[in-house]
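Query form — protein D-methionine transport system substrate-binding protein

QUESTION: What is the three-dimensional structure of this chain?
INPUT:
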Amino acid sequence: MNKKVIAALAMMSVFSTYASAAALRVAADAVPHSEILNHIKQTDKKLDLNVIELNGNLNANELLARGDVDANYFQHVPYLRDQEKALGETFSVVATVHIEPLGIYSHKVKSLKDLPDGAQVAVPNNVTNLSRALYLLQANGLLKLNSTRANTLVTSADITDNPHHLKIIEVEAPQLPRALDDAQLAIINGNYALQAGLVPSKDALALEQAKDNPYANVLVTTPKLAKDPRILELAKDLESKQTAEFINQHYRGSVIPVNQ
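ANSWER: The structure tokens for D-methionine transport system substrate-binding protein are given below.
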């Protein structure tokens, strides 16, 4: 074996040792993502995880692009693709974990049948979750769109029939639980509903279906780190049956594991 090969192998060994020893920095929403990661942190002692909880002022994809974190876990693929365009970056999806069903909630009515004409409906203001919200309203007979395909993005301009004269109000997604005090309905992402003390499987008037849902939450990293042993270990843990069991037991239908 020549000296160059020996030197290369030595460098690989050093990198492997460093990679396994260094803490893996993962940015994640508090609920349920950080909770799931902290569960893995307790059960996989080989993996040194540094879970960085996000707040409203942090863009986890910008953090990843700058190298401030090694991975993030908070988003679905349609949102990620929009972020790639906005940031001029390319990221890698390394695990597909769970679905947080978007739900319709209300403090004003107990059933969608009681919804008055002209009701205000607060929806997420980002492109992908606005589209999800409109499809959920269509699935429950409250309006009609010019598309029935959930992976085709739509906006309010694509509403073709609005028999209840609903007033669609776009709100920053984290603020949607607060909108319940004013609007007749609010369509809230599962993680923000859980953070607000809502139980989607119990409190929602209607929920997205998990079957054929394109909005599963994923673990994301950079192409450079996609084969990092620590990333691969975390991806394996997130897609394991043990993690699926934890999600089912802990969230009881409010978060649905993809890998069951």
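ADDITIONAL NOTE: Confidence is low (pLDDT under 50) at residues 2-20.
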